[in-house]
Write a structure and sequence with these properties.
Elements: E1 2-11, E2 14-24, E3 29-33, H1 40-48, E4 55-60, E5 63-64, H2 70-77, E6 80-83, H3 95-106, H4 111-124, H5 140-152, E7 158-162, H6 170-186, E8 190-195, H7 198-204, E9 207-212, E10 215-220, H8 231-250
Parallel strand pairs: 3-8, 3-9, 6-7, 7-8
Antiparallel strand pairs: 1-2, 1-4, 4-5, 9-10
Helix pairs in contact: 3-4, 3-5, 4-5, 5-6, 6-7
Amino acid sequence: MIEIQNITKSFDGKLVIKGIDGVFERGKTNMIIGASGTGKSVLLKCMVGLLNPDQGNVFFTQRNFTEANRTLKTEIRREIGMLFQGGALFDSKNVQENVKFPLDLLTKMEESEKLDRVNFVLSRVGLENVNNKMPSELSGGMKKRVGIARAIVNNSRYLFCDEPNSGLDPQTAILIDNLIQEITQEFNITTIVVSHDMNSVMEIGEHVMFIFEGAKVWEGTNQDITKSDVKELNDFLFANALLRTVKDIKV
């Protein structure tokens, strides 16, 4: 479980995150949604320690990450997996080297153990026998799956995904959504997905937090979201539906 309390963040005097509280449960796909520029990615960066909040605390299974000493922060970071928006694979490393990187960096495993683990997670995301391929040889969907394999290779307890469907066609996006949800449930991970894609929300959003102009204005499940009477959320839903209609017409 991850809990955030009163997370607040400003840049150059402008309040970007406005005292957000929330609880993200283990074994569920928790989603943070909102339009571009509303503070979703800033909140995520505060949660994983890439940014320090001006106020508030982040707890990983009741351990205060924000105020932790270096030893505890390192311990928690070893339990975190991150799927970046563009995959963020190392262009100079092949698939095996990319996935193995966290094990090289964070563990003292024997090389044979590392390779066994790499092959296991690659198999789990449906990418057997691609170990020697370079990122330039992979499709967008394959890169995302390699990114997921790397994010869970260290037996992560917490998985953060920043716009995992960005740049993917609808069919591949659904595959990535389903894979994230399957892995979350199978390994009982606390997963947080930052997205503005309502297809993903309706597909896998077991717990959804909607942010508008840096504040949490709605929270619930994907079953509840269409029953909301929150104007900002309803406007967001309408804009998404309109965008999907325009895309369908173009196709």
